[in-house]
Amino acid sequence: MPSRALAVWQNRQVVSLLVRRDLKVKYQKSILGYAWSMLEPLAMAGVYFFVFGLIFNSNRGVPGGDDAPGGYLLFLISGLLPWLWFSQSLSQAPNALITHAKLITTMKVPREIFPIEVVAAKFVDYLFTWPVLLLFVFALGGRTSAEGLLLWLPLAIAVQLVFSLGMTLLLASVNVLVRDIERVVRILNRVLFYASAIIIPSSLVLESDFPDWFVTLYQLNPLLGIFKMHHAVWYPADAPNALILSTSIGGALVLLVAGYLTFRRLETSVLKEL
């Protein structure tokens, strides 16, 4: 593993070139270009706010109470933007190797750079959405703290990077051999969206009358802790407890190891299939 990691580091410029190429192709012949990275989340936020904020009144579960700075709309935006990073990474993970089949069979580079490129490209897209988040923070009177900026924000990003990379390594290799993975991912993407406190505050589940086994199972979702950390940047009351935090960090590390070992184990079979 150390030698492969060194090889990936030595080829980091290849990752950078692939990321720039993908971003260029994504917005090629587009009049608005990179502005779409901000407009799409805004449109989604508007729809979800209308449905869950106004119709279903999810505002009652906002961390810190109804008077929390930023209200439900900032809660929604602060969870939706990092979710788009994860969701798009998950959607493209199964095809991370298939899409670059010609490059993989002709270039002498570590194959890990292709799953890494998928996660990195979507992370750059996520960074492009930060002006939208800051706009809502200032407009809605949102507040943060030193703990939020120095602890929860970098920890949330780091854990999500590790989780996304492990997931992409796993799905990219398995999908080459079993094409059903891509269809399973479409279902999983939607299930995880509603199970990870993106649009519905976790307190509505954790403080409800659901059976204890269901609440425990809910807390064992590694993504729950990741998005609670993203929310905790602006809502300190939403900071994850010890169980949720340890599940997120531990789950991300386990997935990275499992994903990498699967990737290496299937590498020969994958190359033959490509």
TrEMBL record:
Which PROSITE patterns does UniProt cross-reference here? ABC_TM2
Can you tell which superkingdom this protein's organism belongs to?
A: Bacteria
Which organism was this protein described from?
Answer: Streptomonospora mangrovi
Question: What keywords are assigned to this protein?
Answer: Cell inner membrane, Cell membrane, Membrane, Transmembrane, Transmembrane helix, Transport
PANTHER family annotated for this entry? INNER MEMBRANE TRANSPORT PERMEASE, TRANSPORT PERMEASE PROTEIN
Q: Which GO terms describe its molecular function?
A: ABC-type transporter activity
Name of the molecule in the record: Transport permease protein
Segments forming domain ABC transmembrane type-2: 32-266
